[in-house]
Design a protein that fits this description.
By secondary structure, the chain is α/β, with parallel strands linked by helices. It is 42% helix and 16% strand. It has 14 helices and 13 strands. Strands 1-13-2-3-12-11-10-7-8 form a nine-stranded mixed beta sheet. The longest helix has 23 residues. It is rod-shaped, with a radius of gyration of 47 Å.
Length: 411
């Protein structure tokens, strides 16, 4: 019959290597979670089928961005247009929905060279594929007018019920006429005193307008820029010409998605992990690792727990001394301490036959003959006058020097 090994010989429950790997994996996972939480708004793909630059649906604007990049036109997408570094000549394209914040819309339109693309379509998520949408009708013009009221008051919007190609008349370049592909429910603007017509249709409806100060442009129909529109080559040519040439932007074309719910608000957590504060964050992380390693190895194996009540004479003496210290009665031991040292000197010198005052006088004469600095006659009054711990310590030092010099002990 085999014997059961003692508990000390049993294998540990977890290997130290496995424990270390679990700790490192936990630290890495927690750190990655913190970093990704700070950058979560910037990592959203925007594949919700909305009418914005991140969407690849029919009403989205991902197609025109691909087209401009293929033609070598500098184009980008921004989630925080107020804080992005940009040249003053950039062309900011904003595509607000009717649910957009009107205050934020008015704030963005104050930027240099802004093109506002008006919304037109009501959509529902497609059942065929995620990120696609189905048309559910057109938006009522009154809702679009209400959205634009803080930006352009008195805007009048017209919509046609048919699907037909659009004849665009360019009023800024010698009345040049171009034709687009079929446009469903063409949306135009009525002439407005605050706007200058740049592009009109064959019936006089304004398709592209600019404010009189040239600060902001308005595109009435989004089908001239969205994916379903640029899928037609004729409309794609008009869209590229409109953004790259007609608006005369010298800087990059930037599509904003902050009004579509994909903004990246300022975050302290994100600020920590971006330059120039990233260096400080890495230094703090490294310091934390070094502190952990130092704490894990500095003291070695844990010390065994001591008994609450120790054994032996040493423990008894320590406890007695602690009681005397707590009672603040140390100075009362001055006389007895002197008596113990006197007895040790008498035993060492062999003058045990003399006692009392004669003994003290004899010890003083011996001290004088031996050149001892301390005298017993001065130590006795000093012991009687001790009133606190400081006096006791001074007496103990003097008595110790007297005894060592009298007995010729090694210090």
């Amino acid at each position: 019959m085999s014997e059961t090994p003692p508990p000390s010989a049993a294998a540990p429950t977890f290997s130290p290597v496995i424990v270390l790997a679990l700790v490192l994996a936990g630290v890495f996972s927690f750190s990655a979670f913190i970093v990704l939480s700070g950058f979560a708004p910037d990592l959203r793909k925007g594949s919700d089928g909305g009418a914005h630059a991140l969407s690849q649906s029919a009403v989205g604007y991902a197609g025109i961005i691909w087209l401009l990049k293929a033609e070598g036109v500098p184009v980008s997408i921004t989630r925080h247009p107020d804080s992005d570094p940009h040249p003053p000549s950039r062309q900011l394209v904003i595509t607000p929905g009717i649910e957009a914040d009107k205050d934020e819309l008015a704030k963005l339109t104050k930027a240099n060279a802004v093109l506002v693309v008006l919304p037109k379509w009501l959509t529902t998520p497609s059942q065929k594929q995620a990120g696609w949408v189905d048309k559910a009708g057109v938006l009522p013009p009154a809702l679009i007018t209400k959205m634009m009221q803080p930006v352009v008051p008195g805007l009048i919007i017209r919509q046609r019920p048919d699907v037909a190609p659009l004849q665009l008349v360019d009023h800024g370049h010698g009345l040049k006429t171009v034709q687009t592909g079929p446009i469903d429910h063409l949306q135009t603007l009525a002439p407005n005193d605050g706007l200058v017509a740049v592009e009109t249709d064959s019936r006089g409806g304004v398709v592209v307008a600019m404010t009189r100060d040239g600060h902001m442009g308005i595109l009435s129909d989004p089908d001239l820029l969205n994916t379903q529109g640029v899928a037609d080559p004729a409309t794609a040519r008009v869209a590229s010409d409109l953004l790259a040439n007609q608006l005369e932007a010298d800087g990059p074309i930037v599509f904003d998605v902050s009004l579509n719910g994909f903004g990246s608000p300022p975050s302290l957590l994100k600020l920590v992990f971006t330059p120039p504060y990233l260096g400080a964050a890495l230094c703090l992380f490294a310091a934390g690792i070094l502190m952990g390693l130092h704490a894990a190895t500095r003291f070695g194996a844990p010390a065994p727990a001591a008994r609450a009540i120790a054994y032996g004479r040493r423990a008894l003496a320590d406890n007695s001394a602690a009681l005397i210290r707590m009672a603040r009665r140390e100075h009362r031991m001055a006389g007895r301490y002197l008596d113990l040292n006197r007895a040790a000197v008498v035993a060492a010198l062999g003058v045990t036959r003399v006692a009392g005052a004669d003994l003290d006088a004899l010890l003083d004469r011996l001290a004088e003959n031996a050149g001892v600095t301390q005298r017993l006659s001065t130590l006795v009054p000093e012991a009687r006058a001790a009133a606190n711990r400081r006096d006791l310590m001074r007496l103990a030092r003097n008595v110790y020097e007297w005894r060592v010099e009298m007995t010729r002990e090694r210090r």
